[in-house]
TrEMBL record:
The gene is LOC112457982. This is F-box/LRR-repeat protein 2-like. SUPFAM superfamilies: RNI-like. One of its GO terms (cellular component) is SCF ubiquitin ligase complex. It comes from the Eukaryota. It comes from Temnothorax curvispinosus. Residues 134-244 form the F-box/LRR-repeat protein 15-like leucin rich repeat domain. GO terms for biological process: SCF-dependent proteasomal ubiquitin-dependent protein catabolic process.
């Protein structure tokens, strides 16, 4: 069962509970949660917690709750700016069953070294640490050495990550989805060893045709390629995509999103003849 309860100041009903998911706040409600109510969550059955823009949420009550939630599978903390270093340490020490972790936004009270606690979550499959200046190459190197089960990595907006960190991510043998949008220090050199992906998103990055064509050729199951705003990408990438998709025998369709690139700069997207297994879009909304 899926549990969706909005937390107000009122207490949570006592157990027994059969529900396993908490999402806060629900759209259209306030987000004044302090975290005290989290200690009432059913520790044995709770599997997913999503905390989104909980501006009053601090470490004290969150830590108490997380220490009990050792069966938690999915934890998302999005733009909860009062979270400090203690939360990351407790997650790394007590939430060992996590397979999905999302940390979105800037945590001003945490330090760069606090990110290191994440590497102890060896069962992680999905990691989304986005728009966080505390994510470094060193962190990513340690991460891939310990979290070999990762299939989905999102470091969008982590603008201190360089080719060194991207090269480390490329060593993940199970990696299927990679998102590096808005990371302006990444170049072709970091991308050259990334291969075998099913989805790749790199909005407003500096990659050129050289790296992108290599990625397309080395990823026969590539289904989504979001190049939005990558101004160094031209029709050369499109021609390689056409050639690769024309020769595909696995019936996998590639969706390419190329708004803001140099692809078909002088033509209207949709009128160019494409292979059956290649769909071209100018906007992500049309690629659903």
């Amino acid at each position: 069962a899926v549990y969706r309860r909005v937390f107000y100041q009122s207490p949570i009903p006592p157990p027994p509970w059969n529900d396993r998911t908490l999402v806060y706040p629900k759209r259209g409600t306030t987000n004044c949660i302090s975290g005290k109510c989290l200690s009432r969550l059913p520790a044995q059955t709770m599997r997913t917690i999503i905390l989104d823009r909980c501006y009053c949420l601090g470490d004290t009550h969150l830590l108490t709750a997380l220490k009990k939630l050792e069966n938690l599978k999915h934890l998302a903390i999005r733009k909860c700016h009062r979270i400090a270093e203690g939360a990351f340490q407790v997650v790394g020490q007590h939430c060992k069953s996590l397979t999905t972790l999302e940390l979105n936004g800037y945590f001003p009270f945490a330090q760069t070294t606090d990110m290191s606690h994440v590497i102890h979550l060896v069962d992680l499959q999905v990691l989304k640490i986005t728009h966080n200046p505390k994510v470094s190459d060193h962190f990513l190197i340690d991460l891939v050495q310990n979290c070999q089960q990762l299939t989905n990595v999102d470091i969008s907006g982590c603008y201190y990550v360089t080719d060194v960190g991207l090269t480390a991510i490329a060593t993940l043998v199970r990696l299927e989805k990679l998102v590096v949008s808005y990371t302006r220090l990444l170049t072709d050199d970091g991308l050259k060893n990334v291969r075998g992906l099913k989805e790749f998103e790199c909005r407003r990055c500096l990659f050129s045709d050289r790296a992108m064509t290599t990625l397309i050729r080395s990823s026969p199951e590539l289904q989504l390629l979001d190049l939005s705003g990558c101004r160094n990408i031209t029709d050369s990438t499109l021609e390689v995509a056409k050639d690769v998709c024309s020769g595909r025998t696995n019936n996998v369709t590639l969706k390419m999103i190329c708004g803001g690139t140099g692809i078909l700069a002088k033509k209207e997207i949709g009128r160019e003849k494409m292979p059956t297994l290649l769909n071209l879009y100018s906007n992500r909304l049309y690629a659903k």
